[in-house]
Write a structure and sequence with these properties.
elongated, binds uridine-5'-diphosphate-glucuronic acid, 3 domains, about 450 residues, six-stranded parallel beta sheet, 14 strands, alpha/beta, N-(1-d-carboxylethyl)-l-norvaline Dehydrogenase, domain 2, Rossmann fold, 17 helices
Length: about 450
């Protein structure tokens, strides 16, 4: 089977490589000629465990092809995936320009029936817009005779485990109002639908909403726990005990109830905002989602407030060691990362930051460039030299069991601000370190 992917960003590249590995021949189309050239040479533009070798091997085997010519892509297969980005507009709603450009381009070049599958994260109703754009383009060409269908097949991969998530999906949502399209997509996903049924077929609009609903639900869990952590902090309770206590109820469960300094990344913040805007545009006030977003924004300042309090409200001339910059471990992504809000607040207050992240150093350099109040260090130990305190922002494995004695002797003040609750304050105490966490008792 041959497949085409328009857009070789995060979702497109990972899914295309996983399809290629399953034995399909996949052609990826992207307008970025440099990206196409790099990928042909096996160089990948993102940090994602396992992806580089997957791409390299499949390029070599001839299963993964790249082009910047849409005409070539359209001619390659009846199955056309759209996986281009849907960046936020100024008001936070999803910008569908790239999705609709690809739709028009498919209609402009096609000369046989096509199934167009939307993989990009898009608001409800986008498939109808794609359909309308293609119909108009075909009418302009005088080719109303050409048949096509538009399906929704949202992606649920997580950064840092994207290859595994795609290879072993927990569900495959097929949104279509057409039985033939459903059969076609069932056949495509057959290699990933072994052991037990993972395909859930539904109508297009429900599939579109399923994607947003999943991310909104997960973000809600996080904001809820962060709110409880604030209460725990005030009332002298320990949120980690509370987490274990509530998670034991199978109706609540242990997944995704870890408090911290807020969710970030390219998905949750963008998707929650886009859902809010879509609802408002339709005259509905999404009270709960607005609260989820507001709590998250507030939560990013949680540690900064504690730091200010600890240092008597004045951070001028202070230096902070920072472990972790990416929005979560196993990625170099700093989009909407809580580290950025924290770092910028520290700079604003006149402090310096000495930071280390196992993957996001280049990304941090790209975002902030050279500046006198930011020192990017070679390793986590180097950040401690001359620092007043240590701040832990991302829970990378290599930060989880540090040499507390070395930290104690390197820091000017014996204090760690732990934004991900990875250290037991009682252990810190044994080493003479004060550990300030998110809603944890010291
Ligand atoms: C998220 C979803 O988990 C995926 O299912 C979805 O496919 C993806 O968005 C997407 O829409 O493309 P991702 O953004 O890669 O995936 O990251 P997550 O692992 O979900 O983490 C998101 C944020 O939530 C991180 O900042 C993380 O630190 C935070 N988080 C997560 C918590 O603060 N507490 C938790 O208990 C879990």
């Amino acid at each position: 089977m041959q497949i085409v992917f328009f857009g070789i960003g995060y979702v497109g590249l990972v899914q295309a490589a996983v399809f290629a590995e399953a034995g399909y021949t996949v052609m990826c189309v992207d307008i970025d000629a440099q990206k196409v050239a790099d990928l042909k040479a096996g160089k990948i533009p993102i940090y994602e465990p396992g992806l580089e070798s997957l791409v390299r091997d499949n390029v070599k085997a001839g299963h993964l092809l790249f082009t910047s010519d849409p005409k070539e892509g359209v001619a390659f297969s009846p199955l056309q995936f759209i996986a281009v980005g849907t960046p936020p507009d100024e008001d936070g709603s999803a910008d569908l320009r790239h999705v609709l450009n690809v739709a028009r381009s498919i209609a402009r070049h096609m000369d046989e029936a096509k199934t167009v599958v939307i993989k990009s994260t898009v608001p409800v109703g986008t498939a109808d817009k794609v359909r309308a754009a293609m119909t108009a383009e075909l009418a302009d060409r005088g080719r109303r005779d050409l048949r096509f269908d538009v399906a929704s097949n949202p992606e649920f991969l997580k950064e840092g485990s994207a290859v595994a998530d795609c290879t072993k999906p927990d569900r495959i949502i097929i949104g279509t109002d057409n039985l033939r399209t459903e059969q076609q997509l069932r056949e495509l996903y057959a290699p990933f639908n072994r052991n037990h049924e993972k395909i859930i077929a539904m109508d297009v609009r429900s599939a579109e909403l399923t994607k947003y609903a999943a991310n909104c639900m997960l973000a809600t869990k996080i904001s809820f726990m962060n709110e409880m952590a604030n209460l725990a902090d005030r009332f002298g309770a320990d949120i980690e005990k509370v987490r274990i206590g509530i998670g034991a109820d199978p109706r609540i469960g242990y997944h995704f109830i870890y408090p911290g300094i807020g969710y970030g990344g390219s998905c949750f913040p963008k998707d929650i905002r886009a859902t809010i805007r879509t609802a408002e545009a339709d005259g509905f006030d999404p009270l709960l989602l607005k609260a989820v977003e507001a709590r998250n924004e507030e939560q990013k300042s949680f540690l900064c407030t504690k730091i200010l309090h600890y240092f008597g409200g004045d951070l001028r001339g202070r230096t902070f060691a920072m472990w972790g910059l990416a929005f979560k471990p196993k990625t170099d992504d700093m989009r909407d990362a809580p580290s950025r809000v924290l770092m910028e607040a520290l700079w604003q207050a006149g402090a310096k930051v000495q930071a280390f992240d196992p993957a996001a150093m280049d990304e941090c350099r790209r975002i902030y460039g050279e500046r006198p109040d930011l020192l990017l260090c070679e390793g986590k130990e180097a950040t401690l030299a001359g620092a007043d305190a240590l701040i832990v922002v991302t829970e990378w494995k290599q930060f989880q069991a540090p040499d507390f004695l070395a930290i104690r002797s390197a820091l000017r003040s014996p204090v760690i601000f732990d934004g991900r609750n990875i250290y037991d304050p009682a252990i810190g105490e044994r080493y003479g370190l004060e550990i300030h966490s998110v809603g944890r008792r010291r």
